[in-house]
Design a protein that fits this description.
The complex is a heterodimer of chains A (about 300) and B (about 220). Chain A is an alpha/beta fold and about 300 residues long. Chain A has helices at about 50-55, 75-80, 85-90, 110-115, 125-135, 150-160, 180-190, 230-235, 250-255, 285-295, 300-305, and strands at about 10-20, 25-35, 40, 65-70, 70-75, 95, 165-170, 200-205, 215-220, 225-230, 235-245, 255-260, 265-270, 280-285. Chain B has about 220 residues and is mainly alpha-helical. Chain B has one domain (about 1-215). Classes of the chains: A alpha/beta (about 300), B mainly alpha (about 220).
């Protein structure tokens, strides 16, 4: 995913992350995020986004692979739960937001700065208070009294108040109304004004990444289906719609083929465009198209049965 | 960092004032029904329950993830939780002493230093055994999956307490009979009890550190 930027400093460089848990396999997933860029990690629920993020943060054990965060490289087998001062120090420069706050429900919002702040040398209480005011998060109640959107905004304020260099967001916009989602995306944009900053933004709402992400990584059933610049994604894939039945060769080139009474549609690699005749409509694929059809390509029987 | 974690941990406990008030009321009520000095071991038992609620709060608030994202190691989390537990225990037992003294004063009973010391040693033993067993289990499995196993020592001690009470050992006269048997060397007994408690807690903390480092979140 270097796209000509090989040798740049990486905010995240993880290779071969492999983890088997229950029936789920995270299979040799690589993650690379050059410093100063936004990586959008997309995929359906259960694709492995959260597991990958937890592996990056050392919250779960991997059977193989290595994780490098902000310039440090550690084999995950050694890194999981390790107590090196270096690993703890890296977290000082990382802000994390998950889909739900990880705060005690009974904690008072106004006291959170005093609870969490002392752990960070760069904690800025004024910035924390400003962010809460900007997001209109009520500070006179307990965490449990906040709505889902307010809880996410509170988490974001906590994640940003210690001036991190790397922001890791796991489904921060999930379940939020459009205004709250826009607030969060705007704040990420502002964060990225500083070129030392980097963001890993995991979501299944791909529209959140429009105009924001420089790179995209599509996960599907624990494997990487695509990883590269978001421009390359749009160059590499196209969307086809045709009438009737595609011939065998064309059909085999369609990723996540959908048949209907009127014809067929699906995703193709742009290199395969020549397989389709002029009667077939070929348009640019959106990120959503790629995510949906890559996921569907793994379960063609289900799709056909549904039709 | 451990001091900061203790502060964070105590915030969790102090965020539940009703639980503290109910616990305190229970100690007062229970000790006045038998004999006021029992407020001391009762306070120890109360501590065991309070400490378990920290793990309940971890689970409800997904605080293990918070600890995993803070710039602290998992060892800091374990040592911090042990330290805050011991701190809560010291305050609770101190409170138990005060309640016992007030209770004795209100009843007009004489204050027997030997019995007081014995009750404090019993409290230390209860704390060491209960916390020593329950903390590693909680660290390994979390509150929901571990609560029954972790509470086993406390339940066994409660059973022993009930049996002893039925046998009359825990009556005022029974206590008076018991004390001379252990009062020959109070300093040695105190030091031995404290040393044993410390050894149990250190071994327990090492075990907890070992299992918590492998915990998946």
């Amino acid at each position: 995913m270097t796209d000509g930027r090989a040798g740049a400093e990486f905010a995240i460089r993880a290779t071969g992350l492999t983890r088997r848990a229950g029936g789920f396999l995270l299979d040799r997933v690589d993650v690379e995020l050059p410093t100063g860029y936004v990586l959008g990690m997309v995929g359906a629920n259960g694709a492995g986004k959260t597991t990958t993020i937890k592996a990056l943060l050392g919250l779960v054990t991997c059977e193989a692979g290595s994780v490098g965060l902000l310039g440090s490289d550690v084999a995950v087998r050694d890194a999981n739960g390790s107590d090196t001062a270096d690993r703890a120090a890296r977290k000082e420069r990382i802000g994390v937001v998950l889909d739900q706050p990880f705060l005690a429900p009974r904690w008072h919002v106004r006291r959170l700065g005093r609870i969490v702040g002392p752990f960070y040398s760069r904690w800025d209480q004024d910035r924390f208070d400003r962010l809460l005011r900007r997001f209109r998060v009520p500070t006179d109640g307990r965490v449990e009294s906040l709505s889902r959107g307010q809880g996410t905004k509170l988490s974001l304020a906590l994640a940003l108040a210690h001036d991190p260099d790397l922001l890791i967001l796991d489904e921060p916009t999930s379940g939020l109304d459009p205004v709250s989602r826009a607030d969060i995306v705007d704040l990420v944009r502002e964060f990225m004004v500083d070129e030392r900053h980097s963001v890993l933004f995991s979501t299944h709402i791909t529209s959140d990444l429009e105009g924001l992400a420089d790179y995209v990584q599509i996960l599907d059933e624990g494997t990487t289906a695509f990883r590269g610049g978001i421009d390359r994604l749009h160059e590499e894939f196209a969307y086809v719609r045709g009438v009737g039945e595609p011939d065998v060769r064309s059909a085999s080139a369609i990723i996540g083929l959908r048949r209907s009474r009127n014809g067929f549609e699906g995703l193709i690699r742009t290199d395969d465009s020549a397989l389709f005749g002029p009667e077939t409509e070929i348009t640019a694929a959106t990120t959503d198209d790629v995510v949906v059809h890559v996921a569907r390509s793994h379960r063609p029987t289900d799709t056909e049965e549904a039709l | 960092m451990i001091a900061r974690f203790i502060t964070l941990d105590l915030h969790g406990l102090l965020a539940q004032p009703m639980r503290l008030v109910v616990g305190l009321g229970f100690i007062v009520l229970f000790s006045t029904q038998i004999t006021p000095v029992f407020a001391v071991p009762m306070a120890a038992a109360f501590t065991v329950v309070m400490v378990s609620t920290s793990f309940l709060a971890d689970e409800r608030g997904r605080l293990d993830i918070l600890y995993g994202t803070l710039p602290i190691s998992r060892t800091t989390v374990v040592l911090g939780r042990y330290a805050s537990s011991v701190l809560v225990a010291l305050v609770a037992v101190g409170l138990g002493d005060v309640i016992a003294l007030i209770g004795l004063g209100l009843k007009g009973d004489a204050i027997d230093g030997g019995t007081f010391l014995l009750m404090n040693l019993v409290a230390v033993a209860i704390l060491a055994v209960s916390l020593g067993v329950q903390l590693p289990v909680f660290f390994a499995l979390g509150y929901t999956r571990a609560r029954v196993a972790a509470m086993l020592p406390a339940l066994i001690m409660l059973l022993a307490f009930t049996v002893a009470q039925s046998a009359g050992v825990l009556s005022s006269s029974g206590m008076a009979d018991l004390w001379p048997r252990v009062s020959a060397a109070p300093v040695v007994l105190s030091v031995l009890t404290a040393a044993a408690a410390l050894a149990v807690l250190i071994a327990s903390a090492l075990a907890a550190r070992h299992v918590y480092r492998r915990r998946q979140f």
